[in-house]
Amino acid sequence: MNCNETCTRRGFLKNTGLVAAAAGITLAVSGMPKFATAAAAKDGPTEKWPWPYEKLDPAVTAEIAYNEWYRAYCGAAVINSVFSQLRAKIGEPYKSFPVDAFLFLEGGVSGWGTICGSNAGANIVTNAILGPRIAGSETGMLMGSEIMQWYSDAKMPVFLPKEPKIKDELIPKTVAGSPLCHISVGRWMAEADKPLASAERKDRCARVAASVAYRTVELLNAWKDGAYVTTGAIPAMKYKIQAQHNCTDCHGKDVPSPPVAAAAK
Amino acid sequence: MNCNETCTRRGFLKNTGLVAAAAGITLAVSGMPKFATAAAAKDGPTEKWPWPYEKLDPAVTAEIAYNEWYRAYCGAAVINSVFSQLRAKIGEPYKSFPVDAFLFLEGGVSGWGTICGSNAGANIVTNAILGPRIAGSETGMLMGSEIMQWYSDAKMPVFLPKEPKIKDELIPKTVAGSPLCHISVGRWMAEADKPLASAERKDRCARVAASVAYRTVELLNAWKDGAYVTTGAIPAMKYKIQAQHNCTDCHGKDVPSPPVAAAAK
């Protein structure tokens, strides 16, 4: 694959026809190519979608996430910033969701640096509330994907807490270009010249969780209003392999081409 | 960081003192360095740990996961292979866990190629059943981490289904060296010369889900018997950044050193 054009945000959007969508023009979700054949969902008591939702204040949600980070870290902080409010406003099925079990999302899943826990938490929130595509709608998956793209492109952290534990000027903003914890934190650490265990790095990640929680609620509120137009996409559809858009970051100029047709064997 | 020694499985174990543990000698989990300060868990009705567990048949579980892959894909397949049986044997809190919402784990989270959904699903299972470390035990997190290491090192797929949809000889085995979907699937596709959309690639991923489900139940059963000795570790503790053990795969010889002490600013 020649990655020079396609392996950028702009190139990806251009090639998938999503530039119009990103500019705010409606993309019919049902027009997305199917990732696989649909099938019926199971029928646990919480497996009926969408879950009831009431609009939340993004800034209030972000403050909760910021403080929750210091208790349960990025993934659980994002989930609980939304679900704790919906437990109080609505009750079930939010009360029965074991939010704290998702503490392990910290550090890109138990310190392995894979998907940033804030992104994982946001995807859990959108997919738990809107449901899986086998239950009839791809919106939850595409909203989660949109958040990962926004995260990758944003100068993070976006959100400034009201009562920061570390002064704002000590927390620089960096662009990850990726939804991965390793790259997101690594680029920030290089810019800030602060180690993993520093108070500044921790506060940066708490602010990232808050930023993602804010964005997630903005999108959920738009959906509740019937005004949500997704810019989310499934990268595997474009690249013919499950992938980010930053191929050259790891592969350099020699981006391999995936097999595109079954070989006769 | 000089990665020549530390960025290998053996070097990692050697440097963290886990060679003895990997060899089967007991490592006290409480002796692991803490990733952060413990705090109290919240008290939703399902947030009491450990959840009740009854030993399952690993082979039966793997067969369920293999077939569930074709309905709900890797992450939900691994979760449901365990939880569907525990819903029948025990009931709550498994009935209220919205397994199908985790379909989005497919393709390394909605086709982005981050953590393999089978690994994500296994971590959800171990952490939901054993609980987060802020509830008193690190075992769920370390068991999940152990599964990711096993996944990275294994010739995948390990499990052979009783009634395969594709003949065994058409599914080669490859070593990912990583818990990421992109690398795991990419190396298999290169070896098999089969595209993402091929029936062989799909069956390979269904078998990977089955393999991970099998291993997860083996470890849970050992825990239930009081015989579980973890070989899991938190890579961020070693590398001073959230990371895998394959630094040179992306960085080549120029593996950057993370900041190790707060700079005066």
Outline of the structure:
The structure is a homodimer of 265-residue chains. Chain A is an all-alpha fold. Chain A contains 10 helices and no strands.
What do these coordinates show?
The structure is a homodimer of 265-residue chains. Chain A is mainly alpha-helical. Helices cover 47% and strands 0% of the residues of chain A. Chain A has helices spanning 3-6, 9-16, 19-22, 58-89, 117-130, 139-153, 181-192, 199-224, 235-239, 247-251. The longest helix of chain A has 32 residues, at 58-89. The model of chain A is unreliable at 1-38 (pLDDT under 50). At the A-B interface, helix 4, helix 5, helix 6, helix 7 and helix 9 of A face helix 4, helix 5, helix 6, helix 7 and helix 9 of B.
Q: What is the overall pLDDT average of chain A?
A: 87
Radius of gyration of chain A: 19 Å
Strand content of chain A: under 5%
Helical stretch tally of chain A: 10
Low-confidence stretches of chain A: 1-38
Distance between the first and last residues' Cα of chain A: 23 Å
Briefly note the structural class of the backbone of chain A: mainly alpha
Shape of chain A: globular
User: How much helix is in the residues of chain A?
Assistant: 40-55%
Oligomer: homodimer
Number of strands of chain A: 0
Q: Topology, please?
A:
Two copies of one chain form a homodimer.
Chain A: H1 3-6, H2 9-16, H3 19-22, H4 58-89, H5 117-130, H6 139-153, H7 181-192, H8 199-224, H9 235-239, H10 247-251
Helix pairs in contact in A: 4-5, 4-8, 5-6, 5-8, 6-8
